[in-house]
């Protein structure tokens, strides 16, 4: 106890700094992936994508980030096996390790998984620095399975959405008229799906608790509102005869470009809700132990403080604004050629999968989910539409990430122990 009593304030300041550094890395690397499809399909410019992401990442992280944060904070390591001193130093080393790896990856332009980074780091310090008994190995199974299942699920949903667009709009006698008819329904789906998760799961820690019936009704109303705004925007789009001569579907893609603004917002929201946990989960664990005076059991049960989510949300936004441009093009331009109709299918499929995972507290990789969705669209167009070289290098960077996070965490854990203990 004396260790935490003696260095409590210093440890808290350091933990906040490391948490902010990790959140900055999430913004610089992962959010860039999330917005890549919007930029790659030319629905948004890089500047517009950064503004959209800043607003909706912040809202997702602050309003709906609590569920997954709980899993990262308590679900991976056993608070009863690890002493409070080692829990604090371990979670700090995990934050520093994951943040360092994300900085390296972003400088290289690699789209890596922040979820892999932090979970690898937490497992690394607990298994090697403390004891293999300190890790909830049974909880790791569903998390690891989700890294395989979510890209597949996202790919299947994207494939289905893309084929529905082909059937209802593209392969019809009047694609432009059908685009204006059916795109508002896709807008409703986008608004409803993101709102449903937010109002039913994510607003408890800001003091608003709704019943499931009230949540569905409110989500429905938000979906209708999004659809009405979309119809208003779509009414301004007219057929561009000149553009249609060079590319038959140019006017149709303009309709989808409006839809992509909505899916980009939902994508950013879903990403903020899931991936803020990677930065603030370990920080919440440290804050809980320090505030409880070293009682790890009390800390494990304590709620995630609002200001911790706020710190993570601000860090994500600054990371995106300052360094996000480095990675933003890889997914948008290099896996397969994207148009707004293809990008919409990828983003809505990813947002649906990530929001669903966030609702049950499962930390999935947004990078994996988005790549799965883009691959699903590439496959729908034929395997030749995929740049297999880029896909291979992305898979390689995924394999390296988990051990890199674990190795760096062990190094930093050893250093912090030498300084404080």
Net shape? elongated
Number of helices: 16
Structural class: mainly alpha
Percentage of residues assigned to helices? over 70%
The succession of helices and strands, N to C, reads HHHHHHHHHHHHHHHH
Largest sheet: none
Sequence stretches where pLDDT stays below 50 over 5 or more residues:
none
Cα-atom Rg, whole angstroms? 22 Å
Strand content: under 5%
End-to-end CA span = 12 Å
Please tally the β strands and state the result.
Answer: 0
Mean pLDDT: 79
Descriptors:
421 residues, mainly alpha, 81% helix
List the helices and strands and how they pair.
Blueprint: H1 2-40, H2 46-64, H3 66-75, H4 84-108, H5 114-130, H6 137-170, H7 175-202, H8 212-234, H9 241-246, H10 250-291, H11 296-301, H12 306-323, H13 328-333, H14 340-359, H15 366-381, H16 388-420
Please give a structural write-up.
The protein has 421 residues and is mainly α. It contains 16 helices and no strands. The chain has helices at 2-40, 46-64, 66-75, 84-108, 114-130, 137-170, 175-202, 212-234, 241-246, 250-291, 296-301, 306-323, 328-333, 340-359, 366-381, 388-420. Helix 10 crosses helix 12. The longest helix is centred in the middle third of the chain and has 42 residues, at 250-291. It is elongated. The model has no long low-confidence stretch (mean pLDDT 79).
Short description:
This protein is mainly alpha-helical and 421 residues long. It is built from 16 helices and no strands. 81% of the residues lie in helices and 0% in strands.
